[in-house]
Amino acid sequence: MLPFHWLTQTIAFGLGIAFSPINIALVALLMLGRQPLRRCATYLGGWVLANGGALGVVVLIGSRFSWALHLGTRAQVQLDLLGAGALLGLGLFQLTPAVTLGEENWAMQLIAQLPELEWLPLLGLGAGCALVSPENLVFYLKEGGMLLTNHTSLRGDLEVGAVFVAVTTSLLLLPPLAWWLSGGRAREAFTVLNDWLIHRAEWLVGVLAMLLGLYLGWQGLEGLHHITVMAVRQG
After folding, report:
1. Helix 202-234 and helix 21-30: axis angle, to 10°?
2. Count of CB atoms within 10 A of residue 17's CB?
């Protein structure tokens, strides 16, 4: 059983990755084409492999350096403050109108090519869309840092990693779940959803990034206060 604070943080960071309007729209669009479930599963397979692989690489590389295992609370505080700054900056950047317009153009170009992609390019696309987002790197580092600084066992790493990857995929599973529940009769709803996700939902990503940035900032400041108090007592 995972400690409650680990579970809540893992869910928060996983949802930060999962809440990607463009990627949810791509999955919904796949449900409108040929072999919808197979092509959707291929795309999601790439997404899962990329998120799990990225977290594994962070933990593997971090465990190779002795400082990552001995700094403890100080390392966690530094990671919190750096992650908070990065997410707040990305959130503000995401809310810039010119950036939103550029992402809409990129999404439309990608959607135009989507029907032509076979299973291997779809697998690569799913992985690439997970790794190309800079804010996702913050979540990988934060989740990996939590595992490193808490000295979990291999079983603990696998349990936390499985929960993290499952949560990163959760929102992308909504379109195929809706398709299955409607018996394939949700084409019009998917079309409306795609339009909203691509043209009107990106500001939500910026807001979510800023909220998570504020959360990490609060954690970092609280940890910094704790370190300061301990240093005064020891002095």
Report:
1. 140
2. 27
CB atoms within 10 A of CB 101: 12
Whole-angstrom Cα distance, residue 180 to residue 228?
54
| CB-CB contact of 16 with 126 (8 Å) | no
Give the number of residues written for the chain. Answer: 235
What is the maximum alpha-carbon separation in the chain? 69
Task: Give pLDDT tens digits for 117-170.
Answer: 788 888 998 999 899 877 788 889 888 878 877 766 778 788 889 999 999 999
DSSP codes of every residue in 135-163: HHHHHHHHHHHHHHHTT--HHHHHHHHHH
Name residues whose C-beta falls within 8 Å of residue 78's C-beta, 6 or more positions apart in sequence: 71, 220
Of the given ranges (28-32, 165-169, 225-229), which has the lowest mean pLDDT?
225-229
Which alpha helices (H) appear in 153-201, and where do they start and end?
Answer: 154-170, 174-181, 187-199
